[in-house]
């Protein structure tokens, strides 16, 4: 699956970026196949280190509004998470301006959780879920001063309700622009979201929300027993908002807020989650938001329907806003 948003850059140019940034020559480089948005390269340096280069989409790529300059949020996330104890790649270099904005980070020795899942004993999976819960709670302790997307002044606000509604409206405008195949007209979705928006006022402090913590973005180290989480990666979709929103991305098709192991770790590390009526409404709003992204990004990325869980996502969205 090769998205239109992936920048095509010859190997020699990727190696040139690395050399200019780190002063080392590349002895081997290969593009990583995974990832559906950014182009990533794994590069071995002449001092033996391995790094990953993440390239922003080309300047003329067709993007959703919130994806513009999104590399800035990923660059911002690394230092914010640094003091939390959450494992992540080390950011070695961030070039946010110029013709090829990119990040260079350490390569993590680990495999994405879905590829590792079959090799885990049930008790190991449960312990890893609890540890993940602890890490998520640690991220949520990082607080901001405004709500919304760090990289987009137009999608930030002093209240969570205002920021979230602006984020939703941005997506719905994208849907109209790309003629996305929504299950309901955009105006009706906007009305349904506003009908539940009162619950957003319960959120008064902007927390760091990763919002892309599906298992593919969690790398596991199976080289030791018990296995451990080697890194959380792919921080670009983060925003300042309601910690509850991360429970949506943790299990896109399920209900992470009912996962006893995840919750045990989350609460042990000081995270608070109570499924009050307001919390359930907020979860439905965040699920709606995530499903909208999944439906609307299809066209600009150049995927065809069969590639993704289009119909499933539409069905889920319909259930939420019916
Ligand atoms: N620092 C790293 N070390 C090792 N592997 C990495 C690293 N960063 C990324 N990868 C690999 O590259 C893949 C894609 O990276 P990433 O998730 O950042 O890209 P993306 O295009 O933003 O993804 P998505 O499709 O989730 O938006 C990861 O699933 C992982 O396998």
UniProtKB/TrEMBL annotation:
Q: Which residues form the Aminoglycoside phosphotransferase domain?
A: 31-278
Q: Matching SUPFAM superfamilies, A to Z?
A: Protein kinase-like (PK-like)
In terms of PANTHER family, this protein maps to:
AMINOGLYCOSIDE PHOSPHOTRANSFERASE DOMAIN-CONTAINING PROTEIN, AMINOGLYCOSIDE PHOSPHOTRANSFERASE-RELATED-RELATED
What is the originating organism of this protein? Nonomuraea fuscirosea
InterPro entries per the UniProt record, alphabetical: AGP_Transferase, Aminoglycoside_PTrfase, Hygromycin-B_Kinase, Kinase-like_dom_sf, Protein_kinase_ATP_BS
Keyword Coiled coil applies:
no
Q: Which GO terms describe its molecular function?
A: ATP binding; transferase activity
- Alphabetical keyword list: ATP-binding, Nucleotide-binding, Transferase
> Which Pfam family name is an example for this entry?
APH
Binding-site residues for ATP, renumbered to this chain? 54
- Keyword Nucleotidyltransferase on this protein? no
- Domain of life assignment: Bacteria
Its transmembrane ranges are: none
Indicate what this protein is called per its UniProt record.
Phosphotransferase family enzyme
């Amino acid at each position: 699956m090769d998205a239109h948003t992936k920048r095509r850059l010859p190997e020699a140019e990727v190696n040139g970026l690395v050399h200019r940034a780190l002063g080392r020559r590349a002895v081997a480089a290969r593009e990583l196949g995974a990832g559906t948005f950014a182009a990533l390269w794994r590069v071995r340096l002449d001092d033996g280190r391995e790094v990953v280069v993440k390239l922003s989409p080309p300047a003329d790529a067709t993007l959703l509004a919130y994806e513009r300059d999104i590399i800035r949020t990923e660059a911002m996330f690394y230092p914010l998470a640094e003091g939390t104890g959450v494992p992540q790649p080390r950011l070695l270099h961030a070039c946010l301006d110029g013709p090829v904005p990119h990040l260079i980070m350490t390569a993590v020795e680990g495999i994405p959780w879905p590829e590792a899942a079959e090799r885990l004993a049930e008790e190991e999976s449960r312990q890893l879920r609890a540890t993940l819960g602890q890490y998520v709670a640690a991220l949520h302790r990082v607080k901001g001063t405004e709500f919304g997307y760090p990289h987009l002044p137009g999608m930030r606000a002093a209240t969570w309700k205002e920021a979230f509604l602006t984020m939703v409206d941005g997506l719905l405008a994208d849907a109209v622009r790309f003629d996305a195949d929504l299950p309901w007209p955009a105006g009706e979705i906007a009305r349904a979201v506003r009908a539940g928006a009162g619950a957003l006022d319960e959120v008064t402090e902007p927390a760091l929300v990763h919002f892309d913590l599906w298992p593919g973005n969690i790398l596991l180290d199976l080289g030791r027993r018990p296995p451990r989480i080697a890194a959380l990666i792919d921080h670009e979709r983060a925003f300042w908002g309601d910690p509850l929103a991360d429970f949506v991305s943790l299990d896109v098709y399920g209900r992470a807020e009912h996962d006893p192991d995840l919750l045990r770790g989350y609460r042990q590390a000081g995270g608070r989650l109570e499924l009050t009526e307001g919390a359930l409404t907020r979860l439905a709003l965040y699920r709606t938001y995530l499903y909208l992204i999944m439906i609307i990004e299809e066209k600009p990325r150049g995927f065809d329907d069969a590639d993704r869980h289009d119909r499933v996502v539409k069905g889920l969205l319909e259930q939420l806003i019916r």
